[in-house]
Amino acid sequence: MKLQQLAYVLAVAEERHFTRAAHRLHLAQPSLSRQVGLLEHELGVLLFHRGPGQGLVTLTADGEALLPFIRRVLADAEATGAEARALRGMSRGRLSVGATPSLITRVLAPALVQFHASHPGIELLVVEAGSHELVRQLASGEVDLALVVLPIADPLVETTPLFDDPLVLAVAPDHPLAGQPSVRVADLDGLPLVMFREGYDLRAVTLAACRDAGVAPRLVSQGGEMDGVLAFVAAGLGAAVVPAIAMPAESTLTAIPFTRPGLGRTVVLAYRGDRPIPRPARALADQLAGGDSEGM
Predict the structure, then answer these.
(1) Which end of the chain is more exposed for a tag (fewer CB within 10 A), N or C?
(2) Is the four-CA dihedral 180, 182, 186, 192 of positive or negative sign?
(3) pLDDT digit string (tens) for 25-36?
(4) What's the pTM value of the predicted model, to 2 decimals?
(5) How far are the Cα atoms of 125, 234, 238, 250 from residue 86, in angstroms, in the given order?
(6) What is the CATH architecture assignment of 93-163+266-288?
(7) How many CB atoms lie within 10 A of CB 296?
(8) How confident is the model over 72-98, as pLDDT tens digits?
């Protein structure tokens, strides 16, 4: 059974005449009659009572019973095609994108504003989490695309580098180190630090750097998110190692760079490498990568 044959039956049923139906369909009448006959043979029922010369016809009882189903199948097929065209043109669809808290405000938010202006029909679902959790969600298919920080160990997830983001020491204006042009990791020894919660890449990077330098900061607060950590720093509770990109544009906080080689991280676009990413995700990836995501 072919959709085209169903469309032929519907045309004949509506015209009640093979010749008029053939003209409407731009077919030769013998071809139309043959296709309708093939469908009747396949279904095992007679759909039409033929008059003399295969012209005027009427629906049989079986034809009357099947006609609503034929209309429904053709309508569903048309709706499927329309939906596919909408998805192909990205006038409709869904995009699930994740980012770490430090990348949400400064990188993802402005990108999504621009993306939504170009594709207002795409529903946006944003997931804010640490890199490890986002990689897990990418691998499980819960997220289409994510802005995360290297390293990534999951073999299903591939990455496209975006930029290197230096880490700085954020302090309040009256902090003893506030006037320093730079700091060393060694300067963190015994320094009161406001620390992120478990699962934050920044926590792991900071503590690993301290271990490598043989120093031990004093953790005065643990478990915070980015906004909370910066608020604690501004209140004078302690300093914090944060990405330079996360420092608020309008803030009294002081960002002190680390001396070379310094501390930093590589921000990447992450996606499933074993299957094509959805069209909306590819469009956003192109936007974030400056149009250079050919390897995705």
Answers:
(1) N
(2) positive
(3) 999 999 999 999
(4) 0.67
(5) 19, 49, 53, 42
(6) 3-Layer(aba) Sandwich (3.40)
(7) 19
(8) 898 888 767 766 766 676 777 888 999
